[in-house]
TrEMBL record:
This is Beta-lysine 5,6-aminomutase alpha subunit. Its EC number is 5.4.3.3. The keyword Heme does not apply. Keywords: Isomerase. Pfam families: Lys-AminoMut_A. It comes from Desmospora profundinema. It comes from the Bacteria.
Length: 535
């Protein structure tokens, strides 16, 4: 006998099919558009980096230069490739000359399109080979050093100073952490450029930059070699620069990225069109790089009630799964999120948490599910908080979660101290060790409280997905069906960065990525087909 909930497999299939149609409908719409962030990512993958004399990142300078000449509907790649061919220089030099106003790309004669595309493919293969080599490094180190067992112990560092983050990250790894996440500086997701170089002053976290990624990767590799255990590095691939950060993370061998299709829309008020386009290209890169994404459904329960809104978490997991599949991301890299957020004063609250966690585990059996600790109902009572975290850890190991983001007993008081993190790791280690195979020994009572709760959540999630399919995802977001947060199709930050593709649009990296992950070329969906409500 298996210790599983008896769920309706037909309902699961129907929910997955509805989510697939929702995602495919939006993907057809995405196929007709690009964004300034996608185009800057193309440049970064071509090797463009650095800043101009005023400190503006060169990818921004170059994209703005092309857009001012009404040429971004063609994609930035043809402009840079053409300039390189005409001037006999590499993309970095093109960017530097544009940054010093010594060339105007709009005045150069155009090479034949076939020649431009041949050079574009050459550069795309070179850029993707750099990512492939970093992925192979990870695979070699995992084979050589090994790693911790799932659920991975996931902790955060958030000093604002990358050098101090490196010290704390090494300390966390020595204490037993398997994943170290560098919390991003407050508000970075809302700036439409990526800061350059090493940073030592952040608020509530540290800026995500390529140099900071390199520093942390080096620090964790050093302690991993000492400990004989690979330590995974996590950062935030979200916000207005989502695909750019995916590219930088891939090039610096990050292992985990916070990357949700809907999080920026709901919780950062980033325009839904911008976010949905950006997430697609970012996930193609993450998939090719072997990076595990973490989605943000846990945040739904900070704005909505965990009892009443549990089905929205499951519905979003289904949607995130399907967007990831369309981008070529395999299930073993989908860290779908959920959270332990029941009010601790609620009778049988733990049973409901168990139902949600077990249900997610069964519905997404190959996904390394990311389980988030209690935060909403942490009170500042450190003793009660430590018990809440212990209950969370018990649910995590019982249901076989993939990634356990450890809670801190001082969660509601201040940024946790180093010793708070050590206590959190000790708590999880104790429970994981003592209850390692509990899930194999305990059977769920047929039609009992846990099973019936899971069935109820699944049925509501299916009904919700079928409704979203009928009205379209954009309308669902406008109505506030997810997380009780309403967003408009044309509201939010970043809409000005959305660009409709012209007939000659060219992104060599997307073409090559789609080949490598076995995806068919997109065919633009009819914008007036049933369920498409973008107008």
């Amino acid at each position: 006998m298996e210790a599983k909930l008896r769920l309706d497999e037909n309902q699961i299939k129907q929910a997955r099919q509805a989510a697939a149609r929702i995602a495919q409908n939006v993907d057809g719409w995405i196929a007709k558009r690009t964004t300034v962030a996608v185009e800057r990512t193309v440049l970064r993958l071509m090797g463009v980096d650095g800043v101009d004399g005023e400190g503006i990142p060169l990818p921004n300078v170059l994209v703005d230069h092309v857009r001012e000449r009404d040429g971004l509907d063609r994609g930035v790649a043809p402009w840079v490739i053409n300039a390189s061919l005409q001037l006999g220089v590499d993309p970095q030099t093109v960017a530097e000359r544009v940054g010093t106003d010594t060339i105007d790309l709009g005045t150069l004669p155009w090479a034949e399109e076939e020649i431009i595309r041949k050079k574009g493919r050459e550069w795309a293969m070179a850029g993707l080979n750099r990512i492939r080599d970093r992925r192979r490094e990870r695979e070699h180190l995992l084979q050589t050093w090994g790693e911790g067992r799932q659920p991975y112990l996931y902790v955060i560092v958030a000093t604002g100073d990358i050098r101090e983050d490196a010290v704390q990250g090494r300390s966390a790894a020595r204490q037993g952490a398997d994943i170290v996440a560098v919390i991003r500086s407050t508000g970075q997701s809302l700036i439409d450029y990526v800061p350059y170089g090493e940073t030592r002053e952040g608020f509530g976290g540290t800026y995500a930059t390529q140099e900071n990624f390199r520093i942390m990767r080096q620090a964790l590799d050093k302690v991993g070699r000492e400990e004989g255990r690979y330590i995974r590095l996590c950062n935030y691939c979200s916000g207005l620069c989502m695909p750019e950060i995916a590219a930088m993370g891939a090039l610096e061998r990050l292992d985990v990225m916070l990357n949700d299709a809907l999080y920026g829309i709901l919780f950062r008020d980033i325009n839904m069109q911008r976010t949905l386009i950006d997430q697609s290209f970012s996930r193609m890169i993450n998939g090719y790089a072997g990076i595990m994404i973490n989605t943000g459904e846990d945040n739904y329960l900070t704005t909505a009630d965990a009892v009443e809104a549990a089905h929205t978490v499951l519905a979003s997991q289904f949607i995130n799964e399907q967007f990831a599949r369309l981008a070529g991301l395999p299930p073993e890299q989908m860290g779908l999120g959920h959270a332990f957020e029941m009010d601790p004063g609620l009778e049988d609250g733990f049973l409901m948490e168990l139902a949600q966690a077990q249900m997610a585990r069964q519905i997404f059996p190959e996904a390394p599910l990311k389980y988030m600790p209690p935060t909403k109902h942490m009170t500042g009572n450190i003793f009660k908080g430590h018990i809440q975290d212990a209950m969370f850890n018990l649910a995590g190991v019982w249901t076989g979660q993939g990634v356990q983001l450890l809670g801190m007993m001082t969660e509601a008081m201040h940024t946790p101290h180093i010793h708070d993190r050590q206590l959190a790791i000790e708590n999880a280690k104790y429970i994981f060790n003592n209850a390692r195979h509990l899930g194999e020994e305990i059977l769920f009572r047929p039609n009992g409280r846990v099973e019936n709760r899971a069935r109820d959540v699944l049925a509501k999630a299916l009904a919700m997905l079928e409704e979203v399919e009928q009205i379209g995802l954009f309308q669902a977001l406008e109505r506030g069906m997810l997380a009780d947060v309403k967003r408009g199709l044309k509201s939010g930050k970043g809409l000005a960065g959305v660009v409709e593709k012209g007939d000659h649009y060219y992104n060599p990296f997307e073409i090559e990525l789609r080949k490598r992950v076995g995806l068919a070329q997109r065919e633009g969906a009819d914008m007036h087909e049933p369920g498409f409500q973008a107008n």
